[in-house]
Design goal:
The chain has 15 helices and 16 strands. It is α/β, with parallel strands linked by helices. The protein has 2 domains: 188 residues, NAD(P)-binding Rossmann-like Domain (Rossmann fold), CATH 3.40.50.720; 221 residues, Dihydrodipicolinate Reductase, domain 2. Helix 7 runs parallel beside helix 8, helix 9 runs parallel beside helix 13 and helix 13 crosses helix 15. It starts with 9 loop residues before the first helix and ends in an 11-residue tail after the last strand.
């Protein structure tokens, strides 16, 4: 496996920072504000053959984690895969998942590190609160596992680069769970853009909007959600310490310590496919995000939310294009997904891929429906894509290269919103900054 192809210039990063290669190869680097991560004997790179059974372990068995587990369980015969372990710190969920997966007690874990010790597991699926994504993904790759990681990739930008560097060094594949990337319509759009059928691509737009009068992410708290059933210390991990809170356990997306609301939960659904379609293989130059809590929807739902219910962002790229995104949890009328070119626009309404010429170019550009016959997104397609990529030993649809660039936009949008100012990216240092970077290379 050559997972270093299209490397986002780690070599240049090493030169710019003066870090020797030994500093990046020793694993894993620890920081004062992080819990110690377990080290594992370097696993040999195993190539999964066409006829090999792929064995899965799952960390986190809430709504999304349970869904992923059942998909792989249902794929057992058709795709030659197997669920061999689950890890969950909430007893009720762990028992339910263990029953659905038909696993013995020894294969239902409360400590994910114990599951990572199993050398027979090929893939770890991580569906936990965002603040746990990086430690779990890094440790799993150190233990020799490939990773299916729910979006957003990480809680912070620094964490995204830790996953990126670990994936490169350990030669493990990573698929981030933005399942729109496995919708054929976006790959058709990529073909159209690459063929220059829109002319110069100028900007893209999209949105992810909902309207929940009872407040988004105010999930029902089950009576079993007590300190006796939930390992609260383990759940908090490197987040700020606080007394047990069933509110925060169930509704963690409302709080900055564990997630970032619309920006991290919803916008990746638009950013990944749009960047894929536009072939934007670069990091943002800048991001400007604004919004706020405009409606009081949390009455009677415990602690008030910290994250916005309405946000908008403009992301600028050095090669020219911009991406505008809107998001709301209090108004569901979204902005149409659209890629705008000088000569034509690419429209995605109703699940279609429609080329519509700009008025001055109607004689040059043909209006045409380019919707592929199997258009439509699903978690099943995205999991199947990862299975196929592992067997072919090639990058999946939402691989580490795309994911780390999207996470940069997500993290910059959050930083911009919280600081109420435009945020810039410094590719040499792989850091955000408050002023434009002195120089900007398209190929880091």
């Amino acid at each position: 496996m050559d997972n270093n192809k299209n490397d986002l210039s780690r070599r240049d990063f090493i030169k710019a920072t003066g870090i020797g290669t030994a500093g990046l190869v020793s694993a894993p680097v620890l920081f004062d504000d992080e819990p110690a991560m377990r080290t594992y004997a370097q696993a040999k790179s195993k190539v999964i053959g066409a006829n090999d059974r792929i064995r899965y372990g799952f960390i986190g068995q809430g709504g999304m984690g349970f869904r992923h587990m059942t998909i792989i369980k249902d794929f057992t015969a058709a795709e030659n895969v197997e669920v061999v372990g689950i890890c969950e710190i909430f007893e009720k969920r762990r028992l339910a998942s263990q029953k659905r997966a038909e696993l013995p007690d020894a294969r239902a874990f409360t400590d994910y590190r114990k599951m990572l010790e199993d050398k027979d597991i090929d893939v770890i699926v991580i569906a936990t609160p965002d603040h746990w994504h990086m430690p779990m993904a890094v440790e799993a790759m150190e233990a020799g596992k490939h990773i299916y990681l729910e979006k957003p990739m990480t809680h912070t930008l620094d964490e995204a680069f830790k996953i990126y560097d670990t994936a490169k060094r350990t030669n493990r594949w990573v698929q981030v769970g933005s399942h729109g990337c496995s919708d054929p319509k976006w790959h058709k759009a990529r073909e159209i853009v690459k063929a220059n059928r829109l002319g110069k691509v100028l900007w893209a737009q999209g949105s992810y909007c909902r309207n929940n009068p009872k407040g988004e992410w105010n999930y029902k708290i089950e009576p079993e959600a007590t300190e006796q059933q939930i390992d609260w210390k383990a759940w908090l991990g490197n987040a700020p310490k606080r007394p047990f809170s069933a509110e925060r356990y169930y509704r963690w997306r409302k709080y900055w310590d564990y997630g970032n609301g619309i920006i991290g939960d919803l916008w990746p659904h638009r950013l990944h496919p749009l960047m894929l379609a536009m072939s934007l293989n670069e990091f943002p130059m800048s991001a400007s995000c604004m919004g706020g809590i405009l409606c009081d929807t949390d009455k009677g739902y415990g602690e008030p939310r910290e994250v916005a219910d309405t946000t908008m962002v403009m992301v600028k790229y050095a090669s020219g294009p911009m991406i505008y995104l809107a998001g709301s949890t209090v108004n569901e009328r979204g902005v149409e997904d659209l890629i705008r070119g000088q000569k034509a626009d690419l429209m995605f309404g109703g699940g279609k891929v429609q080329i519509t010429p700009e008025r001055p170019f109607v004689d040059e550009i043909e209006a045409k429906d380019e919707t592929p016959p199997d258009s439509g997104e699903s978690h099943q397609k995205h999991q199947k894509n990862f299975i196929d990529s592992l067997r072919a030993n090639k990058a999946p649809n939402c691989d580490i290269e795309l994911a780390v660039r999207v996470q940069a936009a997500v993290s910059m949008a959050e930083e911009s919103y919280r600081k109420n100012k435009t945020v810039f990216f410094d590719p040499a240092k792989r850091k955000m900054r408050d002023t434009p970077a002195p120089s900007y290379s398209l190929n880091l």
